[in-house]
Amino acid sequence: MAMMRLRREDPRVVGAFRLHRRLGAGGMGVVYLGADKRGQRVALKVIRPELAEDQEFRSRFAREVSAARRIRGGCTARLVAADLEAERPWFATQYVPGPSLHDKVAEHGVLAAAEAASIGAALAEGLVAVHEAGVVHRDLKPSNILLSPKGPRIIDFGIAWATGASTLTHVGTAVGSPGFLAPEQVRGAAVTPATDVFAFGATLAYAATADSPFGQGSSEVMLYRVVHEEPDLGGVPDALAPLVYACLAKDPEERPSTVQLSERLAEIAAREARGIGVPRRDGLPKAAGPRPERPVGRRAAEYAEQPTRRSPQGSESGAGHSASTSPRGTAGRGPAVPAARTPAVRTPAVRTGGGRRPAPAAPGRRRLLRQRVAVFVIVTLLAAICIAAVQGCHRFSRGTGAPDAPVVAPLHIPPGAPAP
């Protein structure tokens, strides 16, 4: 994580902590690296002076602290101390060493399918703990995920709220990061754990493509795309694309649960690590990649629970939808009007006999079948050679050896008898 020197206006001591560096700044306050007298390092967040007198922001800050206290497990940074009544309210959490997911992708490039799935499985498990505590994060994004040596950690619950709490934002006002907000947030509707699932899907897509699945542009353009356009997943590996697409469903009821995501991504990570996967579409431009079929309704839950299926490029799991034709890069021009879309062309399945023609075997399965056939042929030939060698040796010994002489019993002649 990048650190900056303290500025002239920054405090040097807050509570029992001495501040050493700036870690970052956001809409609510500034985060510092501090340490107590025992040397324990913390990430300390202080509300901005201009917001400290705003009761709405104080309430939101208090909610962040309350959320951090309720969450159990190693998915978030542990709360160390807080002072909500100070002139400038603050709270300190355990310092998490390691870059954010945003910084890692920016510096080292996109993540491989196995690594992205592994991080996604841990994050989904962390979201399970967050939601069990009755909290919805509402601003999950790559910069709010720290990659520590012990696993990813979710930070910055500044706009999180408890399930059932009343909103502190005006109707129609979206609080969060464009490109990672769920459609219901943009519309000002109630948020649920499914809201975090949408942001999770956008975050996983970013890890695999280094871009938001809704492209780039002004806030208005991005929010319009989130509500009205389909995500662009052309660069997402085939192993992850259907699951990411299910997370990005416009209807919250059609998104998989965090428990299903954790189990499925752990399975995908294991398969990809063993090399049993489909090669990603590196040769295609992002906008040209086929849009995977999104499971909806009950199919979303069934898809998240079923074993991982592999199919070659162009099969039913990765084809059947046209890519989005809406223009990208329209920053500053207001909401873009979606261009006319070409209807999706579906190739009818060929039926043989009484059912559908089975999909061709995956490359890994074909390779394993060829290896088994080769081993069987080699073992059979060796057995045949050994049998032939044994029979040849037996015949050779019988053909070249001397015939057995007949056994003749000695003739007994009694004394005095004439000789024969």
Task: Describe the protein in words.
By secondary structure, this protein is α+β, with helices and mostly antiparallel strands. The protein folds into two domains: 1-95, Phosphorylase Kinase, domain 1; 98-333, Orthogonal Bundle (Transferase(Phosphotransferase), domain 1). Helices cover 35% and strands 12% of the residues. The chain is built from eleven helices and twelve strands. The chain has a six-stranded antiparallel sheet. A hairpin with a 2-residue loop joins strand 11 and strand 12. Helix 4 (113-132) packs antiparallel against helix 6 (193-209), helix 4 (113-132) packs antiparallel against helix 9 and helix 6 runs antiparallel to helix 8. The termini are far apart. The model is unreliable at 161-174, 279-291, 296-300, 306-362 and 401-409 (pLDDT under 50).
